Amino acid sequence: MLAELIFAAAMFAPQAPQGVVINELSYDDSGADNLEFIELYNGGANNVDISGWTLTEEDGTSASGNVHLIAGTILAPGQFWVIGQAAVPNLNETITYSLENGADAVFLSDANGVYQDSVAWEMQLWSNPLPLWLEGDGLGGDIQLHEHGGMFQNSISRGIDGFDTDDNGCDFRPAPWTPGTLNLLGMTTVLPYINDFDAPVGTDVTSDFTFSFVSGNVVDPATLTSPAPPSPQGGNCAVWYDPTGGGNANWLNNFTQSDYMMESYVYVTGPNGLFDGDDGENWAMGVRGHSDSFGEYQNVGGFHGVVSCTTTQSGHTGIAWVCNRTQTTSELYLVDFNNGAGNLAGGEFTVLAGPINIQSGVNDGWQRIRLCVQGTSVVGNFGGNYGCDDGQRFTASTNTVCANGAYLTYRECVSNNLNLQPLMTDALFIGDCTTATTSQTGTGSPSSVGTPTISSPAPVIGSPTFAITVSGLIPGSAPFAGIAINTGATLPGIAIPGAPPTALLYVNPIIINIAIADGAGNANFGVPLPCKPSLMGLTLLAQGFDWDATLPFAVPVALSPALIMTLGY
Q1: Distance of CA 405 to the CA centre of its chain
Q2: Hey, what domains does the chain have and what are their CATH numbers?
Q3: What CA–CA distance (Å, rounded) separates 189 from 181?
Q4: The dihedral formed by the CA atoms of 443, 445, 448 and 450, expressed in degrees to the nearest 10
Q5: Which three-class secondary structure state does DSSP give residue 259?
Q6: pLDDT level of residue 20 (50, 70, 90 thresholds)
Q7: Terminal Cα-to-Cα distance of the chain (whole angstroms)
Q8: Cβ pair 118, 74 in contact under 8 A
Q9: How would residue 313 be classed by pLDDT, with cut points 50, 70 and 90?
Q10: What phi-psi label fits residue 421: left (phi over 0), alpha (psi between -120 and 50 degrees) or beta?
Q11: What mean pLDDT do residues 185-205 have?
């Protein structure tokens, strides 16, 4: 094949040896394909002359291939070059071929034939041998550029401009299109994203999410075709499906990252007796990844063997909660989709937990679902208290450590859309997942019995018994001991007028608690931590003090070092 012949003559060098990468592309419009483009970006430190470079297209199902010779230009660091069709904004050069709506790929080579970068898509449909230059497993599923009245277009965008790990499934995600400008300019949703969906019915989430067919939108659960009660949060909720049928995806427009907390009330129901025997519906809520435009489902739990719509090619990546519902079963899984393209070696999904069988009157209705992913650690929760690390708790390890996005998808395969139970959420939180940690800074200042110390266990959100201990105090402190608490950053160590010169203040107190030390010179200060996911990552500061009238100073105070506590799981 043409691409292999060119590759065989090239010197392979991963991660864009000259710094120029394919940064963004669109191969399939939702209407007529008149917005196809490939954006190049110089993410290196030097000017690069791309005169005579080539973009080679390789079809995944036939022997055809096309070569586009790039016009003469020099790309400075941080500069873009858009090659596409006439209607594409910021166009620099018209492309000489069309990109396939199906199994296809493009790869970039310099004027000497040295490979630079590539993107391949709809990998499940490839019947040709996989390219030797394939980066990772390519991209799975059909990712369309959807045109919603000239607004809300999405493309296949590199999650971090110019950053290349040689794995398409990790490096790219659907995001607002930005041909000729930085992809991050479309990633405007600041984390944490918190939405109780109590806006008026019909309010959508287009200011925060890019969507494929229908934006997530606010509904009154009591007025749905299959009515539901309000969630424990109360008020309205959100649905994430296309009422006309098929599939749907919503992708959060946040800046790409790898560690996430996703938590929500989700309305789950048992088996649907109104379904035909080969009917089914599926939803997914995932992080550290993305999906295709249609929310196509993987064969989790043998789902493909039940439903009639088995010609799916899923684009899910990352870690997700997944629910499959049929006439006789309703099952919830925690799944590692890895880098996607599930029929390729190394791209298969892994079930981390489940199935959890959803049974009417037992564990159905509004349930809290939580997913915390940090590094190689995955913690999932079903049921329990919103914001707390409780309920049915599942832990697993993952090798899927890509930096990517967050998404919600729904896909149906039913004979009657009136029988659908769409993905329904309330109190949706998407933010950072942080390990609870403690550390100390600064130096203490002694009393007549020694220098106070300060300590605490890891500050886990939702711990009602969390307490900070100050030790080394004067037993039965006369007249008192205490603790100063604040949030944010420590002070640099500020001298206290009238106090010993070693008494340096590291915490600017907003709360002061007074206590009497016990006979061993210890005092415990309870700081109950509520079940609030918005507290994730909050820094809590504390410094203990002891009043010692025997010290020869106007302010006879002894101090501990400062304790820095990061609230987490």
Answers
A1: 4
A2: 2-186 (2.60.40.1260), 195-431 (2.60.120.560), 437-566 (2.60.40)
A3: 18
A4: -10
A5: coil
A6: very high
A7: 52
A8: no
A9: confident
A10: beta
A11: 96
